[in-house]
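Mods, move this if it's the wrong board.
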Amino acid sequence: MNDKQHTIKAPVTVSGIGLHTGVVSNMTFMPAPINHGYKFQRIDLPEQPIVDADVDNVVDLSRGTTIEQNGARVNTVEHVLAALVGLEIDNVLIQIDGPEPPIMDGSSILFVRPLLEVGLEEQNALRNFFEVPEEIMFRDGSRETEIAILPLDDYRVTVMVDYHSPVLGSQHASLTDLRQFKDEIASCRTFCFLHEIEMLYKQNLIKGGDLSNAIVVVDRVVEDNELDYLSDLLKKPKVAVKKEGILNNVDLRYKNEPARHKLLDLIGDLALVGRPLKGQILAARPGHASNVAFAKKIKKYIKETSVKNVPVYDPKKSPVMDINRIAQTLPHRYPFLLIDKIIHLDETTVTGVKNVTMNESFFQGHFPGNPVMPGVILIEAMAQTGGIYVLSTVPDPENYWTYFMGVDKCRFRRKVVPGDTIIFKCELLAPIKRGIARMQGQAYVAGQLVMEAEMLASIVRKDA
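Not the wrong board. Structure tokens:
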């Protein structure tokens, strides 16, 4: 996956009819600056309001995902968003002169191709990944739906669909590398069952539906008079049924094209989380309602874990302890004095800072050519931060040693590399008794948790 943010090199326009509204629209992808994200702009409305592609803006899930903000609504956004995620494009303004993106052929491929034609442009900023630290699960018993995302330093999706249909049966589809999206997933079209068509028309949906932009699955015997009725409904001279149960001799692009399209929909809907994801996504019988509910659950998790209690480091403010005071307190010296500043110290908590540079001695031998800070060094730096707290509890810290006794529940969430500034926060879990301190520690880079652990340390008087 790309580490840097990307936009497109030039504007590009696609035109066509909307699947549900039946309104012809012109949609232009515009380059956008760093950290802009995905935004739609209704240029046909007064003041040309902008609608953020955000799960909090979802207002309707009738056979597609509709968002609304600032008095403007955009229908069926999932295929457009899937194309952007699949190409690892981070920042785009999508100007549209109607209520719904063109359905094109019912897939994402006719968005992907023009985007690739204008080309992608790398931007000088890192992508703000959400790297899932633990399993996040969604279940909907009424729909027999389950979706989970598991920790993984990559983006992978596996989908299973089962409509209890003799035509479709149970199908699976997987995306193991985002680079596969344009060739393996993007061209997979939307679909529905024959018995749904009349209902959808009566619900004022699929006004732009056509056998050229959707697969219609026939899973029962259909009489000739019903086929004639469908011909009139779809404004087609003749409607036929293939032996495998697909209307009008439409050839499937893949045997499991419906499952692949559900995977495409899931990718597009999860773009509404607002950040690129790193994780293994497993979905059984997903749909837009469950996808959006899952996206809301992920966003809530991010808000609760990534923002709450993350230490704020302002380098302009004077530290509680600079490197000289730290050296007077801790016995460690180069190359093992690992903390540069202490920026907070109170009755239960200490916060330290380490600036990671390529000059660190351990980079000479740890993954040469791919410098990654060793996990054991992260633990040691966190322990030194906790040691500062423990020594602050005695009046004469110069007369004490602190010894690291144990570590528990240690998890590494992402790699730390040269150029990172690590913020270590250690909090006492219980009062110090008999010189034993138990602390909970976290390490953050750019507000994101990179490591956490519980630590046990002992404070011992030097002449004991």
